[in-house]
Every structure is written in structure tokens, then in C-alpha cells.
Amino acid sequence: MSISIGLAGKPNSGKSTFFNAATLANVEMANHPFTTIDAHHGVTHVRVNCPCKSLGKQCNQCQDGARFVPVEIIDIAGLVPDAHKGRGLGNAFLDNLGQANAIIHVIDASGGTDIEGNPVGIGEHDPVDDIEFLEHEITMWMAGILERNWDRLSRRIKAENLKLERVISDQLQGAGVNEHQARVVLLKMKMPDDPTKWTDEEMVALSDALRIESKPLIIAANKMDIAPPELVERLMSADRVVVPTSAAAEYALRMAAKSDVIEYLPGDKEFRIKAELSDAQKAGLDKIRMLLDEKGSTNIQECINTAVLELLDQIVVYPVEDENKYTDKKDRMLPDAFLLQRGSTPHDLAYMVHTDIGDGFLHAVNAKTKMRMGEKHELEDSDVVKIISTK
Ligand SMILES: Nc1nc2c(ncn2[C@@H]2O[C@H](COP(=O)(O)OP(=O)(O)OP(=O)(O)O)[C@@H](O)[C@H]2O)c(=O)[nH]1
Ligand SMILES: [Mg+2]
Question: Does the beta carbon of 78 lie inside 6 Å of ligand 1?
């Protein structure tokens, strides 16, 4: 599992509820700040259409054509203003963000949580203020790391002619910035030639660009079930990718599905009741049904899919041993699904399957069309691929 998404935001915005809904792990949730004091790592899934249907078959890996591909999700403790200076639970939790390839910024769109994460009346806080606060905290945290020893480092860059992007990515390794991202940002930013003369403002601007490049971000406008529509609309009109969500409704649905009360798959637009219900259960599910009728879905799955497939530009590819039956050696149809960066080649896929298979790569076959794929061929989403390797 190579993709990791981090849930970040103010205390009390619903990160743990989102995490629990997405993973159905049992993490404590409560209506007060700092319920989560450790980063929790869990497994969630991207939902895609399994290729078996279009191949006219039924595999054992999907549920009625819905295929769930695992990704890591991290529930990060709530961040308050000046967290980068150690306020609230401080810096340690920012460090958890370093492992995330993308961030889901969970915002309480109901306006029922103040900037410190304390519950207030619905609509008393403007959730639009939360957008920049979180981004600013992450930028300032990165700037703090970058500035550490910068005097000495920048003099070495000059004296020893070190590669700037190498020094920056080494310095920001814990924040998850790689050399390629640093190079892209330096090309865009046109920083002054002499790094020993960069001002604080220039370092912050550089850090902001590094944050944007290395940590694409989507906003979950959460608690849409109780949020005043105008607040959700204000968030939606921000210059960001925004998905309105109800983590609480998704959690209730997944719990009910887990205990066999309803039939529901994450991302479904409806559910079917399949057991006798108590009045309380019925009332709860009726409310959720109304929400789904109005909004289409809880959008938790939508948010995860957008983060992975759009922000991180991933495609799903299915390696097989037998290009006619679409099976592995044990006769399992479409046994594996791999997430790969769009633009990846069959050779990249071979390396993901196994280093030896990558080393021995000869060519590949598109199992759907039986066409040969060369080393530089660009894979497409939902491709089924037979790799021919000497190993
Ligand atoms: N109505 C509604 N309430 C929600 C939703 N998501 C979370 N909540 C409630 O918001 C409160 C805070 O939820 P948590 O998931 O603990 O929030 P958190 O962001 O993890 O908080 P910290 O761990 O303190 O940072 C709880 O009372 C949840 O039940 C939602 O979609 N709708
Ligand atoms: Mg929490």
C-alpha cells in the first residue's frame, strides 16, 4: 500500500468520525477537543468499477462490480492556531502529516466549532476562516524546518556548489518533500540566486509552494447534515476542491451494514433495510435516507476517491498471469489491483509486482485487446495486464 492520506483539521471537526466511518475501526469520538491524541493509522479503500463486468464475467474480488482498493488513512490530532509553535498538542502531530501523500482537510461546515475547536452554536463560527488557518500552520511548520541551520546550509550550497533541490528535500524529508517536488517548485518560484540572502518572507513563500506541491489538499465540508446551506455554499465557492460530507451518517450506515441491519456499500446512493428495526433505529435510518435523497450520498467515499484518483492522479491496473482467463496461477480472476501514478508504464507495474519481475521485464500484453505493450507504453485506468518477464 503506497498511498497514504491524512485527515487534518481543527479539533472537533469530525476527523475521527470520518476515520472510523472510512475504516470502521473503533477510535474514541466525542464532542470535545483533543479526543484523539495519537495519530491513528488505518486502512480505507478507493471504490472503482471492477473490470470483470465489462469482460462479461464475475470475479470473486468485487461486490457486484464495486471493487475496493486499499489505501492508508491517518487520523491526525486536532490542530489549533500556532500549532507550529507548539500550541495545543503542537508539533508532534504536524510530523504525522509528513507521511501523507494528500490531505483531507475536515472542516465543521455547520459553524458549530470555534477556531480553537470548542463547540459553539450552529453558525456562530465562519468555517471559511478554517481553510487558510490549516494551510498556514502547515506552511509555517515546513518553513520552521527549512530554516533550521539554513545559515550554515546555504553557505555550503554556495561554497560547495550543492544541488539546491537536494538540500531542500533532505531538509524536508520528514515533511515528505522529495527532490522532484523541490525542483518543480524552485523552477516555478524563481528564488534569488544567492540562498544565503533569502529573507524570512522568501523562505515562507518557498515553503508555501512546497506545501502545495507535496501535499495536495481536498476539503471535506463535514457535518453537512446539520450545516446551514449558506455556510456549505460559502465553503464550496472557495478556490479549493471541496466535497460536502457527513461522516456521522456514513458511520451509522457502515455500522448498520456491519451488523447486517441494512445492505449498503460505501459510496452507495441508497441502502436497503433487511432486518426488524427498533423505533429508534428506524427513526435514525429515516433521517439518513432523507439526507441521501437530498444530497445523493454521504460523500465520504467520494472524498476519498477524489483525493486518490484526482488529486494524486492515480489509476487502477490489474496484473494477471493468464491473459485469456484474466487469472493468476491459482485460477483466481483479477486477483490484484494496483494503484499507479497516471503515466506509469508496464515496466513500472512489473516493479510494483516484484523487483525480480521488474528486472527481468521483456514486454506486456493488454489482456483486454491482446495487444502487445512496449516498455514505454502508458497504462490506462482499468487495464488488465499480463507481464512477460525472464524471472
Ligand atoms: N451532525 C454531525 N456531527 C458529526 C459529524 N461528524 C462528526 N460529528 C460529531 O462531531 C464531534 C467531534 O467528532 P470527532 O470525530 O471526535 O472530531 P475530531 O476532529 O476527531 O476531534 P479531535 O480528535 O478532538 O481533534 C462528535 O460529537 C461527532 O459525533 C457529522 O457529519 N455530522
Ligand atoms: Mg479525533
Answer: yes
Q: Answer yes or no: do 208 and 170 share one domain.
A: yes
Domains identified in the chain, total number: 3
**Tell me: the pLDDT tens digits for 291-323?**
999 999 999 999 999 999 999 999 999 999 999
Q: Does the Cβ of 299 fall within 6 Å of ligand 1?
A: no
220 and 201 in a common domain: no
Predicted local distance difference test score (pLDDT) of residue 41 = 85
**Contact in structure between 254 and 266 (CB atoms under 8 Å):** yes
The ligand that comes nearest to the alpha carbon of residue 79 is 1
For residues 160-176, give the mean pLDDT. Answer: 94
Distance CA 269, CA 251 (A): 15
**Domain endpoint, select from 275, 307, 339:** 307
- 308 secondary structure, DSSP code: I
Choice between 36 and 271, residue whose per-residue pLDDT is larger:
271
**pLDDT score recorded for residue 30:** 54
At 354, is the secondary structure helix, strand, or coil?
Answer: coil
pLDDT at 1 over 80: no
Is pLDDT of 98 > 90? no
| Cell reading at 55 | 469482460
Centre of ligand 2 from the C-alpha of residue 18, in Å: 9
Q: Which atom of ligand 1 is nearest to the CA of 247?
A: 31
Is residue 335 within 8 Å of residue 386, measured between CB atoms? no
Among the candidates 291, 307, 323, a domain finishes at 307
Domain that holds residue 205: 146-213
Q: What distance in angstroms lies between residue 76's CA and the mean position of ligand 1's atoms?
A: 13
* 17 pocket-lining for ligand 1 (C-beta < 6 Å): yes
**Cβ 66 under 6 angstroms from ligand 1:** no
State mean pLDDT over 366-374. 95
Regarding whether 234 and 174 lie in a shared domain, the answer is no
Please tell me the distance between residue 218's alpha carbon and the centre of ligand 2 in angstroms.
Answer: 18
Whole-number Å distance, alpha carbon 150 to ligand 1 midpoint, is 40
Q: How confident is the model at residue 245 (pLDDT cuts 50, 70, 90)?
A: very high
**Kind and range of the H or E run holding 132:** helix 128-147
* Claim to verify: residue 286 and residue 381 sit in the same structural domain: no
Give the mean model confidence (pLDDT) for residues 159-171. Answer: 95
User: Nearest Cα to 236, choosing from 212, 225, 220, 215?
Assistant: 220
